[in-house]
């Protein structure tokens, strides 16, 4: 029982909402682009420098295969584990696959709500909602939302936090 005797108990349970299924494609594109950063220069140098061709193309091939495998498998796994939910009391987010992280931002602690759409997110019609609190862990981010859902969520959070009195502790 919490100190003070009268505070409501918050029970940790998995958040109910999944991300938009287009997030899998967005994550794959991000991985493939990150993989291309070392692979392309190695492949180009391997094509141009004959004495070092094997030693440049071998790591390029290994990195390309590893990056391709990661791009195929991990986004599916992430999609199964990432969850979010907003109640009248808090924003709940669960992320991670090996090390899962659960973040809860009480409405009374929310300072700002931002919606961001980078170029790849726009291409996939996705957005990220960032909920900033005074927490030392930083903002709570909900990535991979449909851009319309993200806009509605930001509006809803703004309405709820405006109506929620600040925490006096």
TrEMBL record:
It comes from the Bacteria. The chain crosses the membrane at residues 31-49, 55-79. Residues 80-156 form the YdbS-like PH domain. Keywords: Membrane, Transmembrane, Transmembrane helix. The keyword Transmembrane applies. This is PH domain-containing protein. It comes from Streptomyces cyaneofuscatus.
